[in-house]
């Protein structure tokens, strides 16, 4: 068994989830409130190591923080290791990181990680990024809900959400000055 998976990401209208040269707020206040409500209702929030490095998020309202860091490049200094809630790191390596439990798996495929989390009692997860991690879920079509908030602005020099051409089947709604796609299905062209 694997947990119930909700993917959420914010991107510019041309598909970038982050500007190369620094932080750029892609979501708006309405969208942030929507995401906070999801965080409150799931057992854990999952992020890749690069997102922790670049954004240094606290992940307010998360019940558990789940970080994928195969090479264990992170250190004690990130906000996710503030000790206020439990943080788990899935890795191939081991080292002491304050306030984090390192889970070493030979098989670091998303399916294997999710099975382990389910067995640990984490039955629902919000996947917040980044692109590398989200694409592993897309490749295997592992999601129960998938939301993309689209900011009407352009980021020219940024990290793309998608690595290849994709065809999305979605319901769309306005969210303030942005758009919210509720993805029902996603396929290669
Ligand atoms: N707009 C948004 O909604 C949003 C949300 C979150 C993040 N972001 C942005 O996304 C960017 C980062 O995205 P990214 O694609 O570069 O990186 P990422 O997905 O955040 O992290 C990728 C790293 O996570 C580790 N990893 C991935 N899968 C793993 C697995 N199955 N097992 C163990 N470790 C695994 C790997 O670390 P190793 O190198 O150790 O192998 C990999 O290099 C940042 O710029 C951030 O600002 C945007």
Automatic annotation (TrEMBL):
GO BP of this protein: riboflavin biosynthetic process
Gene Ontology terms, MF aspect: 5-amino-6-(5-phosphoribosylamino)uracil reductase activity
Keywords: NADP, Oxidoreductase
Pathway recorded for this protein: Cofactor biosynthesis; riboflavin biosynthesis
Segments forming domain Bacterial bifunctional deaminase-reductase C-terminal: 3-165
Source species, domain of life: Archaea
Pfam families, per the entry: RibD_C
Name of this chain's protein: Bacterial bifunctional deaminase-reductase C-terminal domain-containing protein
Organism in which the protein naturally occurs: Ferroplasma acidiphilum
């Amino acid at each position: 068994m694997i947990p119930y998976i909700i993917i959420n990401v914010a991107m510019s209208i041309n598909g970038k989830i982050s500007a190369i040269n620094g932080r750029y707020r892609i979501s708006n206040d309405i969208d942030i409130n929507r995401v906070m409500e999801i965080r409150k209702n799931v057992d854990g929030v999952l992020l890749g190591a690069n997102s922790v490095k670049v954004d240094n998020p606290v992940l307010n309202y998360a019940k558990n923080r789940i970080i994928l860091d195969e090479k264990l490049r992170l250190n004690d200094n990130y906000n996710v290791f503030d000790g206020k809630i439990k943080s788990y790191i899935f890795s191939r390596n081991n080292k002491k990181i304050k306030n984090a439990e390192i889970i070493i798996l030979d098989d670091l495929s998303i399916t294997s990680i999710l099975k382990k989390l389910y067995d640990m009692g984490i039955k629902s997860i919000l996947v917040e990024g980044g692109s590398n991690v989200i694409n592993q879920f897309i490749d295997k079509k592992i999601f129960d809900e998938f939301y993309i908030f689209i900011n009407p602005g352009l980021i020219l020099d940024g990290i793309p959400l998608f690595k290849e051409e994709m065809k999305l089947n979605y319901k769309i709604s306005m969210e303030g000055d942005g758009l919210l796609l509720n993805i029902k299905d996603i396929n290669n062209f």
